[in-house]
Fold this protein.
Amino acid sequence: MRLAQAGLYSLGNTIAQILFLVVLSMNYAYQPHLFKKLSEGLKNRLHKTTIWYVLAVAAAAGLLVIGIPVLSRYFLGAKYAGAERYALLLVIGCLCGGYIMRFRDTLFIFIKKD
């Protein structure tokens, strides 16, 4: 039974990696823009594109959370239905990780300049 649970966790992790790849690519695309704006003196307020980044990550996570039951029902089958709960938990983790990645870079700039 434990080996079956490990397989379900692995499948849930694979599903959650969709969000991780989206978040990582958004972070890599947004990072140069943020550093340019911060070097221009945008230090004391939250930049508007950071708010858009947060909303986009939340929207991607929401779409995946909505899509997991559909994916489970139509593509995975009843045998792998247990992976759904692992995928949902791991998507929440990827969502939090995406926010941490975004604000970690900003904090490094603030600490480095002070």
